[in-house]
Amino acid sequence: MKEEAKLEGLKVRVEMLRKRREIEEKERLLKQQREDYELEVEMKLAEAKANVFKKYDNPESSDEESLLTKSDDKVDSSGVHNLIRSQTEISRMMIDQQKLVSLPRRELQIFDGKVQDYRAFIAAFEHNIEQLTDNNQDRLYYLQQFTSGRPRELVRSCMGKDPKRGYEQARRELEEEYGDDFRILSSYRKEIEMMQPIKGENSAAMKDYLTFCVVFGNAINESEILRKMDQTESIMKLVSKLPYRLRERWRLQAYRIKGKSHKLAGFMTMLSLSENK
Fold first, then answer.
1. At what angle are helices 163-178 and 118-128 packed, to 10 degrees?
2. Could you read off the pLDDT of 72-92 as tens digits, one per residue?
3. Separation between Cα atoms, residue 228 and residue 219, nearest integer Å
4. CA–CA separation, 35 vs 41, rounded Å?
5. Within 13 Å and on the Cβ side, how many CA atoms surround 247?
6. Which is nearest to 186 in space by CA: 148, 216, 206, 208?
C-alpha cells in the first residue's frame, strides 16, 4: 500500500514537471515573439523617419509624389500602431503566464462517492484540470487519480477506450450516479434524520448545524428542480433539531409570516433565525 502511494506521488511529480516545462517553453516563445516585434517596431519607425526626411529633402517634388509619400506615411503609421498593439498583447500574456506560475499549487479533494460533495468536486475538477488541458487522456487519468471507491471503478472502466469517448463516458456515468438532484436531496434528508437534537447552549453543535444548513441551502439554490420542490418537510425536521427556545421563535415567526402573506415560512427564514440565536 505504501509503495502504491509512493508510485502515485511520483506520477504526480512527473506530470507536474511536464506541465512546468510546457509553461517554461511557452514563456520562451512569448519572449522570442516579443523581441521580434520590438525589432519590427524599430524598423518601421526607422522607415517612417526616413520617409519624413526624404520628403523634406525634396521640397520640389511633384504633388503626385507628395501624395504617395503621405500615403506611405499613413501605411507606416498604421503598421507601427498594429505592432505596438501586438507587443502590448504579448506583454499582457507574459504577465498572465507569470502570475499563473507564481500561484501556489491548487489542491483537489478526492471524491469518494459522497453524493453531497459531487457538485463541488466536479466544479473544482473542471477549473483545476479540465480547463488546463485539451488532452482527454490526461483528463481521464486525473479523473481516476482524484476519485476513490465506487467512483474510481466507474472511471477505470472507461480507461481502455478512445480517450475522447472514454472521458465523456466517465463524466456521464459519474453524473448519472452522483449528480441526480433527487438523490442529492435524499442524501441530505437522511443526514437530517440522523442529526442529534441540539441541547441548551452547545455552541459547537450549533456551528455544525449552521454549516450544514448553509450547504444544504446552497445545494437547493443551485438546482432549479430542488428550488421548485416543497422543502417544508425538511425544514420542519431541521427546526425540530434546534433547542426549545429557537423552536418557539421559529413557530412564532412562521405564524406571523403565514398571517401576513398567507405563505409558509421558507428555508431562509429558518436559517436567519438560527444564525441570530
1. 150
2. 555 455 555 666 666 677 667
3. 13
4. 10
5. 13
6. 216
- Average pLDDT over the chain, rounded to an integer: 75
Torsion sign, CA atoms 64, 70, 73, 79: negative
pTM score: 0.54
26 contacts: CB under 8 Å, gap ≥ 6: 97
Percentage of the residues of the chain whose pLDDT score is greater than 70: 58
Can you tell me the distance from the alpha carbon of 261 to that of 183, in angstroms, rounded to the nearest whole number?
32
What interhelical angle do 203-222 and 267-275 show, nearest 10?
150
Q: Which amino acid belongs to residue 262?
A: H
Does residue 231 or residue 152 have the better pLDDT?
A: 152
Cell of 85: 498593439
For residue 111, list its beta bridge partners: 147
Is residue 274 scored above 60 in pLDDT?
A: no
Q: CA torsion 4→10→12→13, rounded to 10°?
A: 160
- Provide the grid cell at 5: 502511494
Kind and range of the H or E element at 34? helix 2-57
- Rounded to the nearest 5 percent, the helix, strand and coil shares of the chain are 80, 0, 20
154 close to 182: Cβ distance less than 8 angstroms: no
Q: Tell me the H-state helices in 58-162.
A: 63-102, 118-128, 136-145, 149-156
What is the sign of the dihedral through the CA atoms of 126, 122, 107 and 111?
Answer: negative
Flag whether pLDDT at 148 surpasses 90: yes
Cβ atoms 229, 249 nearer than 8 A: no
- How confident is residue 264, by pLDDT bands cut at 50, 70 and 90? low
Alpha carbon distance 39, 274 (integer Å): 66
